[in-house]
Amino acid sequence: MTALAALIRRDIKIALRVGGGALIGVLFFLTVVVLMPFAVGPDLALLSRLGPAILWLGALLASLLTLDRLFMADHEDGSLDLITMSRTPLELACAAKALAHWLAAGLPLIVATPVLGLLLNLDMVATGAVALTLLAGTPALTFTGMIGAALAVTLHRGGLLMAVLVLPLSIPVLIFGVAASQAAITGPLSFGAPFSILCALSLVSLVIGPFAAAASLKHGLD
């Protein structure tokens, strides 16, 4: 547990450094939300209806933006080989790195959501609902994207692979995240059903993601 905690602290410090990637995701999220009202126009009712989808789409793209560096930096400086050969199971190490990435890059998006929701004409109840669904759904984006990041480590076209592999796997999370947000704001659908599916997607990715990423790394580094 001490080794995993040290790995989490190390990855968070690297991500929060200048150029570490965490701030890039937040700035991208901010850019998407700020530009969208200019594209939609002055119709506040339309902006309010599209608000949850805009926030979710921005969070999805911002979360995936920094995933390519999840293993790549460690591969470049040789740290990944040490992690692979250590006594700590590689599956737990992958889970720890994904958790650190979510804490550094995903959690700030959730914190920023209530403020950015004001730009989309969303009230506090609406922004709170979107933030709650992001809290439940963004771990699925991180742990699913970790699989693509592991596959991309030893490939020259890793960025293209990330887009081709991870985006289709992220679509169910986007669908049920927006559905749960809309149900909490306007109805008439129940909030519980899509939110429960969203939580289930995160739990499934939490179980499958570390094992799939570890298998990809073992195969790619052999």
Automatic annotation (TrEMBL):
Q: Which UniProt keywords apply?
A: Cell inner membrane, Cell membrane, Cytochrome c-type biogenesis, Membrane, Transmembrane, Transmembrane helix, Transport
GO terms in the biological process aspect are: cytochrome c biosynthetic process; cytochrome complex assembly
Q: Which residues cross the membrane?
A: 21-41, 53-71, 92-120, 126-153, 160-185, 191-217
- Record carries keyword Transmembrane: yes
**Entry keyword Cell inner membrane:** yes
Chief site of localization: membrane
Please state where this protein is localized: Cell inner membrane
Q: Which GO terms describe its cellular component?
A: plasma membrane
Q: Which GO terms describe its molecular function?
A: heme transmembrane transporter activity
Q: How does it sit in the membrane?
A: Multi-pass membrane protein
Write down the Pfam families for this protein, in alphabetical order.
Answer: CcmB
- What family is reported? Belongs to the CcmB/CycW/HelB family.
Q: Which PANTHER family match?
A: CYTOCHROME C BIOGENESIS B-RELATED (PTHR30070:SF1), HEME EXPORTER PROTEIN B (PTHR30070)
Q: What role is this protein assigned? A: Required for the export of heme to the periplasm for the biogenesis of c-type cytochromes.
Name the record gives this protein = Heme exporter protein B
Q: Which gene encodes it?
A: ccmB
